Amino acid sequence: MTIRKGKLLIIGFGPGAFEHITQRAREAIEESEVIIGYNTYVDLIRGLLTDQEIVRTGMTEEVSRAQEAVRQAELGKKVAVISSGDSGVYGMAGLVYEVLIERQWDPSTGVEVEVVPGISAINSCASLLGAPVMHDACTISLSDHLTPWEQIAKRVEAAASADFIIALYNPRSGRRTRQIVETQRILLKYRSPETPVGLVKSAYRDREQVILTTLGSMLDHDIGMLTTVIIGNSTTFVYEGLIITPRGYQRKYTLDSTVQALRPHERLRTEAEPWSLNAQEEGWDDDEEEPPVRMESTAMASAAASEPMKTEQHSVSLALEALQLLTAKGILSGGSLSAAVEATSPVRTTLSIFELGIAPGIANKKFTAQQMTMIAELVGEKGEIEYTPHHQIIVRIETEDPSSVVDQLKKAQLLVFPIGDVAQIKACDFCNLEKDEAIPVAEQLNRVIGGLKTPKELKIGINGCGMACYGAVLEDIGIVFRRGAYDLFLGGKTIGRNAHAAQPVAEGISASDIVPAIERIFKEYAEKGHPNERFHKFFKRVGKVAGFEHQDHHEPVAVDAACGD
Ligand code: SAH
Fold this sequence. Notes:
alpha/beta, binds S-adenosyl-L-homocysteine, five-stranded mixed beta sheet, elongated, 24 strands, five-stranded parallel beta sheet
């Protein structure tokens, strides 16, 4: 006679609502003969019960529940052990295995085990809050019932410093009230008090409660054993009552909006992600037909290959470095650095690479030694200073505070401008500022459209004499000052094997008319250009911009046969 082998079904039934119990979990409950679970959980799955034997236990009797389950299974029964959420996440699965192992369980001959997955609280609670868990996240149980508090505190600290989104399970009970207070204190060392926090109690159960709060004020609300606390990372934001964490860290700043999201076509490109492992290993493949968004990026990727920018450093040490820098510059004074960290708490520790163009002026091409020194100091060991094919100095600075970088540069009389898909004024040096009549126009152009968004980068060259030695006529838009007025060129193809100069479209435009004309051209391009469409393509496609006609270069030249033969 063969003894019937029992089976252990370790089932997570999800947050509580019937619809969120998986099909397999339902079947497993239905097919089992004995159900072992905490009272409340048995009540939650009542709808699925038929004639199963129920072994109900109190909350703290987990070990005896696991032992009882194993004992019944060894008697040959099919036993369901139920946990809320997922049974492998602070649930019964591990405990059941531990009991089995203690009894020298052999999977091939002993009772069969099936762990049935369920929706864990981090997932169910996140779904009620919006999309807070879009990036790297971790779960931390604040219960120090089975784990020493120092260990938990260490994990909170590590998760906070590494900018993880954190889901706190077992945040607080009648008896354990200090843990959540201490956790908040640790988190505030690394994250802003404004960090969005969601408190979800009894997700998908009768007494469901969803509260949107912040790290600073989360303790003003009711937090209990049935609550999961979800804490955003440094990029998490709130929109119409929803907590959203963007999928990636954004890196580019414009002067007006601080954060400039990468456009879809810029995403997933190695050179747009200088922090990625790929960027550190590969350069740009220069056989590509269309070069990268910005030519400059090629140099950047290869620079990164030889000397990777370290973007993943322990944030405390980075914060300390930032403070050191400020102290060295006399911006912060007195006290030890660690005291300064405490004093400036909460320290925002997420670094972004702040990328911007720098120039001594529109016409002035000469940096002073002091300016160079201060740029070098700002950029530091980890940043980059790049000289591009466009007479541009681009700097990349690791910083938590881009606006202070801009302030410092401006204080040093430097011009700062965003790079990428914006209008950029490229003026000549006006023969060392001697042929200076057109400088006010260049400066005015920079004031009115410099840095504004365009479908694709738009370079507007302006040269102060007919020599046009800075190549204005080779740009997207070229302006050449000659005989007291301005000649206008449109649609240069600045890159590629079939690069060509811009077309001359008008001559002798007056000083008062030229800026409005360029503004109109810019406006039409900004409004009607397709995303990512270069200006020369746009000009060709629309045929006429602000009244200036495109002439097709490839039209066969009509040969006047009259004078032939
Ligand atoms: N195995 C479960 C976790 C058990 S630990 C899972 O995977 O979800 C118990 C903790 O889980 C609670 O203190 C609470 O923080 C969280 N939790 C479980 N179910 C929840 C629900 N429906 N709503 C909110 N939090 C819940």
